[in-house]
Amino acid sequence: MKRTFNVTGMTCAACSARVEKAAANVPGIASVSVNLLKNSMEVDFDGDAATLAAVSAAVEKAGYGAYPRPEAGASSANVQQPVQTMNDPAAEAKRVRMRLIVSFCFTIPLFYLSMGHMFGWPLPGVFLGHENMLTFAFTQFLLLLPVIFVNFKFFRVGFKTLAHGAPNMDSLIALGSAASTIYGIAAIYRIGWGMGHGDIDFAHAAAMDLYFESAAMILTLITLGKYFEARAKGKTTDAIAKLMDLTPKEAARRTPDGGVEQVPVEQVRVGDLLEVKAGQSVPVDGIVIEGGGVVDESVITGESVPVGKHAGDTVTGATLNKSGWFVMRADRVGADTTLAGIIRLVDEATSTKAPIEKIADKIAGVFVPVVIVIAVVTFLVWMVLSADVSTALTHAISVLVISCPCALGLATPTAIMVGTGRGASSGILVKSAEALEVAHDVKTVVFDKTGTITTGKPVVTDIVCANGVDERGLAGLALSIEQRSEHPLAQAVAAWAEAAGGQVQPVSAFEQVAGGGVRANVGGACALAGNARLMEQAGVDASAFEPRARALADEGKTPLFFACGGKVCGLVAVADTVKPSSAAALEELRAMGLRTIMLTGDNERTAQAIQRLVGADEVIAGMLPEDKEREIRRLSAQGRVAMVGDGINDAPALARADVGIAIGAGTDIAIDSADVVLMRSDVLDVPAAIQLSRSTLRNIKQNLFWALIYNAVCIPVAAGVFSFAGFTLNPMIAAAAMSCSSVCVVSNALRLRSWKPRLSSNAAQQIAATQCDMKEEAADATASEQDIQAIDAGAPADKEIIMEKKLTVEGMMCPKCVAHVKKALEDVEGVSEAVVDLDAGTAVAKLADAVDDTVLVNAVVEAGYEVKGIE
Length: 871
What we know:
This protein is α+β, with helices and mostly antiparallel strands. It has 32 helices and 28 strands.
C-alpha cells in the first residue's frame, strides 16, 4: 500500500536524507521516497493506520513534521487533490519576500554604519569620536536584532536539527550568523572594558571588529537566495498548476423537465446530460449524443489541430468547444476523468526518485556534519597559524555559510519536475522518475504492428472486377455475404460495399468456413467470399486473378475472392493501413542511433511488406502475446529495450520492457502496464519521449556536476587554503555565493521548459507539411459567423497606421506557417497588415487602432505557435 505525506521543516538535501532514513527504519515500511522540492514523502508500507502514525512520530523525532495526505476518493472534489496537497510556491515566495524587505531595511543602514568609513561615506556625529564607540557598536547590534527576528526560522530549525544529531543547511547558517553575533556582543564588552580602563586603542580595535554586519548580511543574502529559489520553484510546478486551472468549474445540466441548470462540476454524475456551447469547456468525459462541434484537445493531447465531434464521438473534460453546439452524456466524472488521471500521473511521477538521485542522497547524508568538522578544523588551524581570533573566525564562518547542500538536493527533483511537466504539456505522460532516467539509455525500440504502426482498422484498398461484372454489382454481392460476418476484414468490405451503392440480396444458408472465409446462398445461387484455398476447395477456377492476388499480398494487403454460381466475380484487397507518421518516427529513431524492431502476429509476407513501408530494421512475424514477452526478455539481455504497444496482448511485453510506452488511444490495461503514455497516439512521440529523457538526464548531470564542483572549489577557498596568493572570501561574499548556487541549479532546470522535440530534416519536413495542411483545413472548417459576415461585407477601408509591434514567433517551419500567422494577426480587429519573416522568426503587426499585446499574442498562440517576445 502506498501513501503520501506532507513533510514540514526540510530545507536541504541533508533534511530529506534524514527524513527518509527515519521513516525507512519504521517496521512495516517497504520503501520511502522523499521529494525536497515538493516537501512530500511517498511511503510503501504493509500495515494500517498505526504504521502511518509511527512514521509521523519517527519523522517528528528526527526534527521534522510528517502528515498523511487524505486518500483520494471517488468524488469530483478529489480532482483538486494533487494541487491542494502540494506547497504553494507563490505563497512561499510572498512570505520570503516580506522577510527579505524587512531584512534589507535594517541591513542596508547597518552596512552603511559599519563599513561606511572604509569608503569615505559621511557618518552622523553621534557615531564619531572615541567617546561614542559604545553608541556606534550598540546601534549596530540594535539594527541586527530585527534581521535575526524575521529570519529566526534559520535558528529555530538549524539548532533543532543540530540537537537531534542531524544538522542541515539551516544549521550551517545558524552557526555562522550566531558565531558572528556572539563575537560582536563580546566585542561590545571589550569596548566597555577598554574605555573603563582608559585603553582607548583596545576599545577602538574592538569597535572595528564587531561582525554584526556579517551576521546580518549572511541572513539577508541567504533570504534573497531563498526568494529567488521560491520563485523558480513556482515555475517548476507550472505544469500541474496550469492543468488544474483548466478544470471546468460549472456544467450546464439538463433537468428532467427539459430545462437546463448550471451546477458545479462536482455535482455532475455519470449518466447526466450536459449541454456544451461554442467557447465553453467540456465539463467531464463523455459521449456526444446530439449536435456537433469542433473541439480543441491541445490541453490533453498537445495537438493544436481542432477535432470535429459528432454523435457517437467521445469528448474529454477540459477540452474547448471552439464552434458548434452539442449535448453529451457524462461517462467519467470526478477523479475518473482523463484530466484528473493526467494530474495524478504527473504528481506521482514528480514524487518519485530517479536512480541517479541516490548519489546526491548519499552525499547529503554526511555533507553537513563534514562541513561543520571542516569549519572547526579551519578555526583551530588559523588560531595556530595566526593566533588571531578574528581571522580564524572569518574563515570558519565562511566555510559554514558557503557550503550548499541545498543545491545538491534540488539538482534532480527540479529537473524531474520540469521535464515531466513539459512532457505532459506535449502529450507525453511519464509515470515515474525512474522511467524518465532509464529511457535515455534505450538501445532498441520494439513496436507492436496493429494499432501502433498501423491504424488497426482495415480498409478496402483495391478492387478487381471480372469481365462482365461492374463495381456496383460486385459491391452488392460483397455486402450481401459479408454483412453477417463479425470478422474485421468482412466489416471493412461491408463498409466499402455499402458506400459503393451495393444492393443487398436475399441471403440464406450462411456459414463460416474455418481458415477460408464464408459461404451462403445469395439470390438463389451459391456464393463464396474468402481466400484462394476456399475457391480451390469449392472447385472455382481463380487462376486468372492469382497473379494480381500475389502482387497485392506482397504489398501487405489481404486479397479476398468473391464468387457466385461457380465463377469468380472479382477480387477485393483489404489492408490495415500504416499511420502517416510511422515511417518518419522510425527514421528519427534510426537517426538517434537506435535499433527498431516490429513484432506482429501476421504472416511473414505481410509483415515484410509493412517493414518495407516503414523502414524497420527487423521484423518478427507470427508472434503470440507470450511470444512478445519472451522476445522482449531476450532483447533486454542485449541492452535497454523500449516496447511500444496499444492492445491487451501487448501488456505482458510492456511490463517486461525496461521502458513500456503505451499509445494513449489503447486499452486501459496497456496504459496501466506502461511507464510512458502517449496521449496523442502518435508514434512520432516515441522519439520525442526518448529525447525528453536524454535532455532531462543531461540537465540532472549538469546540476549535480556544478553543485559538487561548487562545494569542492568554494569550501577550500573559504577555508583560506589559497590565502597565500591573496585569494580569500569574507562571510558576506560566501553567503552571496551560497545563495547563487541554489538559484543557478533551479534556473538551469528551468531551461527544460523550452524543450521541444527535434526531428531530423526529412522527418521534420514531412510532418511540418502535414501539420500545416491540417491546420489550414481546420482553420477553414472552423471559420466563425463573424468571419463570414466580414467577408460578405467586404474588406474594410484602409486606415492610417499608428503603430507597429514586432513579435518573436517560434514554431514556424514553412511558408504555410507564415500564412497562418499572418492570417491570425490580420483577423485581429485593429490590425491593418501583418508582415511575417520565416527566416527571422518574426511577425510585424501594423496597427490602425490601439491593440493590447495580450490580444496579439493570444491570436498567434491559438493558431498553434509560440510567442517568445513582443516589442
